[in-house]
Amino acid sequence: MEKINTTLLSNFILMGITDQPWLQKVLFAFILFFYLLDLCGNLTIISLVTRDPVLQSPMYFLLANLSFVDMIFSSVTVPKMMVGFLVENIITVNSCITQMYFFHTLGCTEGILLAIMGYDRYVAICYPLRYITIMGRSTCIQLVLAAWLTGLTTSLVNAIMTSQLPFCNKQRIKHFYCDVKPVIKLACKDIQVNEVTMAIVSGFISLGTFSLTVLSYVYIITHVLKIRSSKGGSKIFSTCSSHLTIVILFYGTAMCTYLGPASDTSLEKDRIAAILFTVITPTLNPLIYTLRNKEVRNSIRKLLKTQSNFCSSLETF
Question: DSSP readout, 79-126?
Fold first, then answer.
């Protein structure tokens, strides 16, 4: 029988997106720009919601929490990815599992938050008179805590199972961060159980929350079709379009990544999809809500006007 090298690895090497030096520099600048835009945009949303009394509603409370999750979601992967553009990106096995755990925790939490936001729009449109009663402050806090708790617990499954795998020979992860599929691909034992578990957990969360979001919009569309006023219907669709755009971006890339087997071809596609939902989507979320939402735009104008008046008073002083 062939003897297998059982020397266990203590480090991995993240191969990143490309090995072309010129392209690494371009990607470094590109991703740095989007990451800074992500931080500024989401911090702005959080600041506006906490400061402006007009934005003290359940919808904006949930939006602020989504911005907070997006900001941390990017920060779990992007800084380490940018290091890989400059030097060989070495990461310990324990750090790799930790990154994987928090990445999936935040991704799961975001998916549940999007489902809650869909339910929030359903209640606001279909039961406007009972909206504040149903989506009260305490209810919103409980829903957000439930989203975090679900993310923290379900992500433990893949993290614990991956940590139990022996990694003997292969060291290079074909990705720019530690994710389940490329990591378990390096194990020196059968990973079929891990792949099935990953598909079940990811499918339960992504398909479950996506189905709840779709169900909310089915009820919303049914309600809108009963409205005789075209102006009222278009206003409702305009209100929901920002959330719906984010839902399509998030779930589209997530499902393509996690509901398939860990083949070499799929891993190449996963890296492209991962750039979308770790860098691009968190950056677009605050921009989409800002451009499509009149109340948020007015709040930004008030903030800029206040800062301008403050600067003018300092100059006069």
Answer: HHHHHHTTS-EEEEHHHHHHHHHHHHHHHHHHHHHHHHHHHHHHHHHH
Q: 55: which residues sit within 8 A by CB, 6+ positions away? A: 48, 49, 295, 296, 299
At 70 the three-state DSSP class reads helix
Query: Pick from 84, 97, 99, 92: which is nearest to 27 by CA?
Result: 84
CA-to-CA separations, 188 to 39, 93, 168, 266, in angstroms, rounded: 39, 15, 6, 20
- For the chain, what is the domain count? 1
pLDDT < 50 regions, the chain? 1-5, 310, 314
> Is 277 within 8 Å of 218 (Cβ atoms)?
no
Q: Where in the sequence is the domain holding 235, given as residue range(s)?
A: 11-295
Q: What SS3 state is found at 4?
A: coil
Spatial contact of 254 and 107, defined as CB atoms under 8 Å apart? yes
Q: What percent of the chain has pLDDT over 90?
A: 29
Domain of 27, CATH number, reads 1.20.1070.10
Question: 95 lies in a domain?
Answer: yes
Its pTM stands at 0.86
Give per-residue pLDDT as tens, 30-76.
999 999 999 999 999 999 899 888 888 898 999 999 999 999 999 99
Q: Quick one: how far is CA 268 from the chain centroid?
A: 20
**How far is it, in rounded angstroms, from Cα 201 to Cα 204?**
5
Cα gap 49→145, rounded to integer Å: 19
